[in-house]
Design a protein that fits this description.
By secondary structure, the chain is an alpha/beta fold. 47% of the residues lie in helices and 16% in strands. The protein has helices at 2-26, 43-59, 81-87, 120-129, 131-134, 177-185, 198-203, 214-217, 222-225, 249-253, 257-265, 269-292, 302-324, 330-344, and strands spanning 30-36, 64-69, 92-95, 142-148, 153-156, 171-174, 189-192, 209-212, 228-231, 242-247, 296-299. The strands form 2 sheets. It has a 6-stranded mixed β-sheet with strand order 7-6-8-5-9-11, with helices on both faces.
Length: 346
């Protein structure tokens, strides 16, 4: 009888141990850091990062948790964010690929003037269509979403831009190397800097203006520091910027399959349309706020817009020549991107 009881106790204990240990393994918690360069009030955090994090925390039953660090509060400068996520300093980052020139040559196609047409949703969906075409650029990270904003307006401090000639000689903040080429093609002087440095540069009159969308001009106080904003005819913008929401590959690989699926189900094509709509909706609100504050917001005439477009076309040609020298089919990427964007704009 004693032996039988010992056998039953041992068996029961084994079952309890198995249940406790396996349940513990599956219930393991994961806490990931999210690092970005804008303020916690910026659309990047309010529209994308916070809702995304909360949704995944809920769907994982609390097994995944996130700590968000805005305004480079984990240290470093905005151009270092890509290296931080690649090397595991941060688990997830939201950044601008253009801050690390030459690292993402294929991704650049979507920020070229004349490729993006002002519809963030259409371009986001085109990016998803072309993920295989740009995969080489993203091989060292786990991309969660590559997306764009509605497009750059030109904001100036003291000179209203009414013609192509008006920009000549101005010092203008550009968002990326292709943006710098665009400014050069106008006869202006490009000044490269991450967007958080923009308010100080404007207040100190180190630059005459900047290329950014209205949605970020509001939280950065650029509206208060400039007096004039201009778009091209019909609301066409001066190119855009691409953004990268990405995860460290080892951090992603550390997850069990069920949690990986939750991340996958809330990334890429699953959120590209929604985020595009959000950015499209935010931009006119930012423009209205600028107008309500008494800022001059105008559009160039058709004739003057044509002059800017002609100069911008040369930027696209320059980009094609430059990336073709690296063995990349730049012309093919431009044609494919334009076609995909046009299809998603219908």
């Amino acid at each position: 009888m004693l032996i039988r009881r010992l056998i039953l106790w041992t068996a029961s204990a084994s079952v309890v141990f198995f249940v406790v240990t396996t349940t513990g393994a599956f219930a393991q918690d994961f806490t990931f850091t999210i690092h970005h360069f804008l303020s916690p009030k910026a659309p990047a955090q309010k529209v994308l990062i916070e809702p995304w994090a909360k949704k995944i925390e809920a769907e994982s039953g609390g097994r995944i948790k996130f700590e968000i660090f805005p305004s480079m509060s984990m240290g470093g400068k905005p151009p270092e964010l890509y290296k931080q996520v690649r090397d595991g300093v941060a688990d997830i980052v939201w950044t601008v690929p253009g801050y690390t020139p030459g690292v993402f040559p294929r991704v650049e196609v979507f920020e070229l003037p004349g490729v993006h047409n002002g519809d963030a949703k259409a371009t986001n969906l085109a990016i998803q269509d072309m993920m295989e075409d740009i995969a080489t650029d993203l091989k060292n990270i786990k991309p969660l979403l590559i997306h764009v904003h509605a497009g750059n307006a030109l904001h100036t401090v003291s000179k209203e831009i009414q013609s192509f000639e008006d920009v000549k000689g101005l010092k203008l903040r550009s968002p990326s190397r292709t943006g710098a080429w665009m400014v050069e093609s106008w006869g202006a002087e490009p000044v490269g800097m991450p967007v958080p440095a923009l308010p100080q540069a404007l207040s100190k009159k180190a630059i005459d203006g900047a290329l950014i969308p209205f949605e970020v001009a509001i939280p950065l106080k650029v509206i208060e520091l400039t007096n004039f904003s201009v778009e091209m005819d019909g609301g066409e913008r001066f190119g855009t910027a691409t953004f990268m929401f990405a995860m460290n590959q080892n951090s992603f690989d550390s997850l069990p399959d069920d949690l990986k699926k939750i991340i996958e189900d809330n990334s890429g094509a699953a959120i590209a349309s929604e985020i595009g709509d959000a950015w499209n909706n935010i931009e006119p609100l930012g423009m209205k706020l600028a107008i309500d504050k008494g800022k001059s917001v105008t559009q160039l005439s058709s004739a003057e817009s044509t002059k800017f477009s002609a100069a911008n076309d040369k930027v696209v040609e320059r980009w094609i020549d430059e990336v073709s020298g690296k063995g990349i089919d730049g012309e093919g990427l431009v044609k494919k991107a334009k076609k995909a964007i046009a299809e998603h704009s219908k």
